[in-house]
Write a structure and sequence with these properties.
This protein has 9 helices and 16 strands. The protein has 366 residues and is an alpha/beta fold. Strand 12 and strand 13 form a beta hairpin.
């Protein structure tokens, strides 16, 4: 395989595992389609109530309140998306919990993950990919610190549910805080072990990890999968909150925020005030993420970092045919020729380009 690279971190961009909470948004937003039929008979919404099904997934309200209407925003990949908004009444009213077993809540709240679990079924080893490749995204640290024991309990449940003999958790060898959090409880789970990999990029991608560890046809559960599964299996509820890293060279007080899914990023930033006059944000990092207007961004479970940088964009210059993008691509793509068949959207071609060509934002290539 091609040599993986060590990312040189910008010393002006600091990160912190200090956790703040913002769980009282005035409104929450959920992606919807005009063809969707709401599973709601009344205007009043309860926390955890099912709203609708869309693209093989079910959406549940993270607050109690009332339906507000529809609005267009951008999603985390910069695509225009229609959202259903709900006004928060701040009462946190929940529906009555029926006494079902964990299997029921797994299939109810994580129906979109059932095809993935079916693929993983009967594998000798269940793999959990807990690697965070982005050097400025530390949200997983807060998740592991606050949920280490229940996370391991969830994995042990899945080991039995999927008829696996062992569970291997992939982590970078320098993920010290995550390792320490898990190590406190690992002794209670003899069939779960940690597997360490070097801090190289983009080793967190399954296809790269498969080649590096020489594990044929590697299939893994990801961090966001475990968040949904843990909420369902342990808490018997849909996932309502997530963790987001706030950082960047414009941020005075970097932190991780535990926030309601559906919160408008602008309201979150106004509340925690990490710095002043923020309008643009890198969603999910410089490498794989996109630069968006802050007021367009809605926090979903797929968003794990908001990076505010002084140098928002660099002026693109004509290609000088240096070949660096081809040399660095871990999947042997040629970005200049538009070869993206095996592209994993790691962003290395954009990162390495001396002409500052933003390949990941291009639909066509020269």
């Amino acid at each position: 395989m091609k040599k993986l690279i060590s990312i040189k971190r910008d010393k002006l961009i600091k990160v912190s595992s200090y956790v703040k909470k913002f769980t009282l948004p005035t409104k929450v937003y959920f992606p919807i389609d005009k063809s969707v039929k709401l599973n709601i008979n009344a205007k009043k919404i309860k926390k955890g109530q099912k709203l609708y099904d869309l693209h093989n997934a079910s959406y549940y309200s993270s607050v109690s309140g009332e339906l507000s209407g529809l609005i267009w925003k951008k999603d985390e990949t910069n695509n225009p998306t229609l959202y259903l908004s709900i006004i928060n009444d701040f009462k946190e009213e929940k529906g009555k919990l029926i006494n079902h077993n964990a299997n029921y809540y797994l299939t109810t709240f994580c129906s979109f993950l059932l095809p993935t679990l079916e693929i993983l079924k009967n594998q000798k080893i269940l793999y959990f990919n807990a690697i965070k490749d982005d050097p400025y995204d530390v949200s997983v640290v807060a998740y592991f610190k606050e949920n280490a024991e229940s996370l391991l309990e969830t994995l042990d449940f899945l080991r039995n549910y999927l008829h696996s003999k062992e569970v291997h958790i992939f982590l970078k060898e320098n993920a010290t805080e995550c390792i320490e959090a898990l190590s406190k409880f690992l002794g209670m789970y003899p069939f779960i072990s940690l597997v360490f990999v070097p801090d190289l990029y983009p080793i967190g991608d399954d296809s790269v990890l498969e080649e590096y560890l020489k594990i044929p046809n590697l299939k893994t559960l990801k961090i966001v999968d475990l968040m949904y599964l843990q909420a369902a299996i342990i808490n018997n509820e849909p996932l309502e909150e997530t963790y987001v890293t706030i950082s960047g060279d414009l941020v005075d007080e970097p932190c991780i925020v535990k926030v309601k899914i559906g919160t408008l990023a602008q309201e979150l930033i106004n509340e925690i005030k990490p710095c002043q006059n923020l309008s643009k944000v890198w969603v999910n990092g410089f490498f794989k993420g996109h630069l968006l207007d802050l007021d367009e961004v809605v926090i979903t479970a797929q968003i794990s970092s908001l990076i505010f940088s002084k140098e928002e964009t660099k002026k693109e210059n004509p290609c000088i045919s240096c070949g660096k993008c081809l040399e660095c691509c871990p999947k042997n793509c040629n970005p200049i020729k538009g070869e993206r068949q095996n592209c994993i959207s790691c962003g290395l071609c954009t990162y390495i380009c001396p002409s500052h060509i933003n390949f990941k934002e291009r639909n066509t290539y020269e």
